[in-house]
Amino acid sequence: MNLLLLFDYIGTFVFAISGTLTAANKRLDFFGATMIGFVTAVGGGSLRDMMLGDTPVAWMRDLNYFWLIIAGVLVTIAFGKVVMTLKKTLFLFDTIGIAVFTIIGLKKALMMGINIPLAVMMGLASAVVGGVIRDTLCNELPLIFHREIYATACIAGALVYLLLNFLGMNEHACEIATVGSIITIRLIAVRFDIALPKIELKE
Amino acid sequence: MNLLLLFDYIGTFVFAISGTLTAANKRLDFFGATMIGFVTAVGGGSLRDMMLGDTPVAWMRDLNYFWLIIAGVLVTIAFGKVVMTLKKTLFLFDTIGIAVFTIIGLKKALMMGINIPLAVMMGLASAVVGGVIRDTLCNELPLIFHREIYATACIAGALVYLLLNFLGMNEHACEIATVGSIITIRLIAVRFDIALPKIELKE
Amino acid sequence: MNLLLLFDYIGTFVFAISGTLTAANKRLDFFGATMIGFVTAVGGGSLRDMMLGDTPVAWMRDLNYFWLIIAGVLVTIAFGKVVMTLKKTLFLFDTIGIAVFTIIGLKKALMMGINIPLAVMMGLASAVVGGVIRDTLCNELPLIFHREIYATACIAGALVYLLLNFLGMNEHACEIATVGSIITIRLIAVRFDIALPKIELKE
């Protein structure tokens, strides 16, 4: 089985859990939670595919995404408190998720002949847009805009991928190194509480 | 004249009214109200068509939608208080609207070869996304995520449609039965104040 | 060099500045500001292209947009206070921006065979949707829905363009007259504090 696809499935499942947890905090009902779980998991990839014109969007062509998301929502509803004690596991899988979504978005855009900086942006969008829509629908300022190194880790990972690829490393090794570097950057950022500076307008 | 198209027009008109009423509550100006009327009426179908890749999106190919929405906005602005006293009529037409949008989304997705569960989701998206965008733009937690049986009625209707279709019932009868069952479910839910349980994370 | 393209570049640059200023007000971090700068600048055109089915969306096919947005964000972060003292200049360029985005959206839709009223809407969407997404992501009621003549100026400009075009005026003159009339309307509206009436529901 394709490594990237396996990681993609894991990321989808974990993103659905993260969406459901946010929805539970807002005291949404069962349907609301399922819907937030869905948009968190597929929002980024859908926007990427709609912007690139690769339609129907990816998750509509493989039913596994659907069942993984439903499973993520149900697991969270059934074992919510337990799920929340698994914070570190979730954090790790979530980081694997954004790493893989970044790589998938980047590769797809490059394959369609998009310029490198824009392909990096498509990778980033695949990884972060789901969470942005989740927070916006839940009527909150998107987490990613004001907390923690997150997008920065994705961009760094994308650059690692491009560099190793340019140096001729084989595809699988590139992917693993990218996922590894994104995890490392994010772990270091959280461990040492590193965040991007808030913007203050200067004279 | 095609029955589904007629219902589609009614739904579009009523959704434009619902958008304008929400905008008036937020004390938006005339343009704001018109824009909210538009996104409420066409948001769901547009997202569906962009995700499926059936572009230009449906309402750009038939000018009637445009005029129906303008009419819905103007009627609401001119006779707002009267419109609001027609609550039961609006409720009925709104329910017809979501029923028809569900059927249209479902049928279109099936015709494009999308898997059944995902086609049901496309039906649901056609019906509810307009209202979600309306509430998000008006800076409120989307109504549909925390109040009333609504999406559930759409999903049940979609299943009724699929079942009757599978049993070989003719197209028109399927559509009428679907609309009927969605109306019935929603009426019962409102009458007996049935709502989905809010999510509470369990041990 | 193409006049419309030059104005398009200016508009993109100024929209990125406006997004970054809003983000700074919300005390977002560097990444958040960049992302808001991007969606403000490309949101309208992206939605237009996704709805029309002209993909990959325009800004993914010309790397200049990317660098102009990055430049707009960096300039704002580096010289924020200075940028804010240039209010009148920003206002002028912003108005040029919406004027040009309106023309581009209108022309593109007409070329794709979209009906005139809907093509005007595509022009309007190109001009205003970026700002709407900016405000929604920053968790505020979109400015455009309740303040100032803005969309109205775009629509009036689109009609001027269509009229002059219909009268056989040459393309360049049409464009300049359109930009001029949008600037004039907006200046007059701001100078005399003209706004659309807020909606109040009538008996």
Instruction: Give helix % range of chain A.
Output: over 70%
Number of E-type strands of chain A:
0
Largest interface: A-B, 39 and 34 residues
Q: List low-pLDDT spans of chain A.
A: none
How much is the radius of gyration of chain A in Å?
Answer: 17 Å
| Beta-strand content estimate of chain A | under 5%
Q: How many independent structural domains of chain A?
A: 1
Average pLDDT taken over every residue of chain A: 88
Query: How many alpha or pi helices of chain A?
Result: 7
Helix/strand order of chain A: HHHHHHH
What key phrases describe this protein's structure?
homotrimer, globular, 203 residues, mainly alpha
Can you put this structure into words, describing what you see?
Chains A, B, C: Residues 6-79, 92-164 form the Glycine transporter domain. Chains A, B, C: It is found in: Cell membrane. Chains A, B, C: The chain crosses the membrane at residues 6-23, 28-45, 65-83, 90-110, 116-137, 149-170. Chains A, B, C: Belongs to the UPF0126 family. Chains A, B, C: Keywords: Cell membrane, Membrane, Transmembrane, Transmembrane helix. Three copies of one chain form a homotrimer. Chain A is mostly helical and 203 residues long. The first copy, chain A, has one domain. Chain A is built from seven helices and no strands. Chain A has helices at 3-25, 30-52, 63-85, 87-111, 116-137, 151-166, 171-191. In chain A, helix 1 packs across helix 4 (87-111), helix 2 (30-52) runs antiparallel to helix 5 (116-137) and helix 4 crosses helix 5 (116-137). Chain A is globular, with a radius of gyration of 17 Å. The N and C termini of chain A lie far apart (56 Å). The mean pLDDT of chain A is 88. Chains in contact: A-B, A-C, B-C. Chain A binds chain B through residues 20-21, 23-24, 26-33, 35-36, 38, 46, 49-50, 53, 55-57, 59-60, 63, 66, 76-84, 136-139, and chain B through 50-53, 109, 112, 114-115, 117-118, 121-122, 132, 136, 139-142, 144-147, 150-152, 195-203.
